[in-house]
Amino acid sequence: MKLQVYLSGEIHSDWRDELINEAERLLLPVEFLTPVLNHDASDNVGIKILGEEDNSFWKDHKAAKINAIRIKNSIEKADIVVVKFGDKYKQWNAAFDAGYAAALGKPYIVIHPAEFTHALKEVDAQAMAVAENVEQVLKILEYVTLPE
């Protein structure tokens, strides 16, 4: 059984590369899906394709809608969604992705440090697991892909 895993959340560290490389090393039967990871490309896709905006609200609105095409399709395709909350910024989009996964009945795993527990209690409450690091997620993926 090969699982599709969507990797949502912060884009300011190499956590995705770490997870993907280790999963490959372990020969886990997993295929990973991601959002666009280039922050500038993601933020500017709307104006690049659909034209400039004087108001930053409409610039962000265009980008969010275009990015949502990829994100929604990936979450819908995924067997598992992994959502990482990082220290640098508040990832409101990651919380939305977790909510969307929950609404679709998709199991999701959250990664965040212990000090985020209170702020993310509702997100954590719907998660199948709350991990503090990538290693724990790898162990979960290894377990759920064990041969029958």
Form type: globular
Estimated helix fraction: 40-55%
Terminal residue distance:
10 Å
CATH topology: Rossmann fold
Uncertain regions spanning at least 5 consecutive residues: none
The SSE string, one letter per element, is: EHEHHEHEHEH
Strand order within the widest beta sheet: 2-1-3-4-5
Pfam families: Nuc_deoxyri_tr3
Protein name: YtoQ family protein
InterPro entries: YtoQ_family_protein
Explain briefly what this protein structure is.
Pfam families: Nuc_deoxyri_tr3 (PF11071). By secondary structure, the chain is an alpha/beta fold. It has a single domain, classed as 3-Layer(aba) Sandwich (Rossmann fold), CATH 3.40.50.450.
Outline the secondary-structure elements:
Layout: E1 3-9, H1 15-25, E2 30-33, H2 39-50, H3 56-77, E3 80-84, H4 92-103, E4 108-111, H5 121-126, E5 129-131, H6 134-144
Parallel strand pairs: 1-2, 1-3, 3-4, 4-5
How is this structure best described in words?
The protein contains 6 helices and 5 strands; from the N terminus they run E-H-E-H-H-E-H-E-H-E-H. The chain is of the alpha/beta class. It has one domain: Rossmann fold (3-Layer(aba) Sandwich). It has a 5-stranded parallel β-sheet, with helices on both faces. The radius of gyration is 16 Å and the shape is globular. It starts with a strand and ends with a helix. This is YtoQ family protein. It holds the Pfam family Nuc_deoxyri_tr3.
